[in-house]
Fold each of these.
Amino acid sequence: MAKTDTQFLYFTYYPKDVYPDVAMALYFLATIVLIVQIIRQKAQLWLYILPVTAFAEGLGYVFRLLCVRNTTFTLYVLMTLFLLLPPNAMALANYKTVGKIMAQSLARPRWFFLRPKFVNWFYFASDILSIALQGTGGGMMTSYKRRDAGKKIVLLGLIVQLFFFACFLATTFYVGSKQAYVVGTGTRSAKRKVLFTIVATTVLLYLRSIYRIVEFADGYGGKIYSAEWAFYAFDTIVILLAFIVYIAVPLGPHFVRGKAVLNEEASPLSTHIEPKD
């Protein structure tokens, strides 16, 4: 089978090889910048989730570039999985951030679903579930016979992800509305910056998930699936913008190793909160 025929069989269009080069370079650059920031800020180690995610995205475009130049089944599978799954880890970083704020503050709501331990495990489990569904479905879609079943599983994973994103945004706005929850030294400015980063990146991930849902619902060979510009506009650029937000308004300075959140505004005598045990 000719190279061009193989390309069209997998992509349903003839992809350009210049775009993966640019995307790969930008994501690897974001990886380096994030690592340097975390080291200089002496940020907590869990924030390395972000550069690892950026690196995984960069690898996705390495596989896309290789697949464009020499389209094979193996390269197509690797490209699909590395471009589909890494953004889930970005969501995990956001979940961890809000969980840290809640755990290190004096306030603890009476409602169990707003308590730090539940928030940490609930959203962590949701992320693992979403990754498992999307990974399984993405792998199945590389087989012609299982493509339809794989598409449905990926769609289910993306819809589950959107639901948990909505729940997480509600939790984040709750944390933002309560003075008992503080960040770093307890200044309002620090809290606004952290919440801006969390909300902005979560909204971008939400938009990317909506695009992916439309893409998979449209089906193999559909107008959205076959539009290369749509992939770069609503996946590549959207996720890159999220990394730019993380770099421009970093989380690291507010989560320094060895320093806990100093809650100066919370009062254990408040009627709407309980002090930690």
Note: The chain has one domain: 3-254.
Amino acid sequence: MEYKQTVLYVEDNQLNMALMHHIFKKNLPSVRLLKAETAALGLQIARQKLPDLIILDIGLPDLNGYEAMDELKNDESTRPIPVLAISAFAQRSDIERAQKSGFSGYITKPFQVKTLTEAVEKLLAGIA
């Protein structure tokens, strides 16, 4: 299969990783999903592969999502890549912090598959 676009998913939870893999395979088959279990690995992959979109968990064990976002925005090569935050932190203050940090969107866990799929499609199409 030839992929049209690439998304990097940075997530430390194996069940969430498996769920996202299934969602992409079923609902976004033309999009290649790269995976990283730590922020450090995610940053390395982002710099090497320059994906079209990054989905970044906020609650990572090494760097949190905000720290990883700072790294992405401070790197000229990764700065233009839209980043979608995904987190169980669902307070209004969490969402506002993510917006101020430069995230292109924020999805709370547990999420609806349709909500996630639509957000990914919009960001990949450049509609944010």
Note: Strands lie at 5-10, 31-36, 53-57, 83-87, 105-108.
